[in-house]
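Let's do one together. I've listed all components of the complex below, 223 residues spread over two lines.
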Amino acid sequence: DVKVTQSSRYLVKRTGEKVFLECVQDMDHENMFWYRQDPGLGLRLIYFSYDVKMKEKGDIPEGYSVSREKKERFSLILESASTNQTSMYLCASSKQEAQETQYFGPGTRLLVL
Amino acid sequence: DQQVKQNSPSLSVQEGRISILNCDYTNSMFDYFLWYKKYPAEGPTFLISISSIKDKNEDGRFTVFLNKSAKHLSLHIVPSQPGDSAVYFCAGGSNYKLTFGKGTLLTVNP
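Okay, and this is what the predicted structure of the assembly comes out as:
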């Protein structure tokens, strides 16, 4: 069974803190993605990776960076958290030959105070 | 620029009736389209997809229709069940990436 896990379901951080969100998938998928979901805005792509050590900017990369050192793990980094980064963060993965179907983790709800 | 639009934020239907969720897009380069369902406090789950070269795809109670000339797709759920109550996102995809609409909250009343 396909599984994408995220390190935390809820997280509270202070403005200016460095924040790490971790995502792990056990399906040997090549592609991994980070989205944020905000009320009235749907899901917006932050970054994605189609291979180890490879990364591509999505639609809203500002204020974020990512790391993919191993195939199964994709990390989202907020270098200096700000209140406008309070959101639900969703990780997803997909196979290279079936890239249209993405499998999502349960999400991390981040509150930046 | 919103490439995928779901103009109805919410929809309410009676159990057993048909639910029709609509989606419009502006990007002609999408290779495929998908519908995802999302329950509160869970990640979205894949529901059904359609290639841009098809006009219909059916999977059990779910059918997706694509009208390329109108740049419009719709999801039909027949018959609707209370367990279908969720937020539905449509998405267009190409080159690894998916672009999502804002979602439609479907409520199926018993």
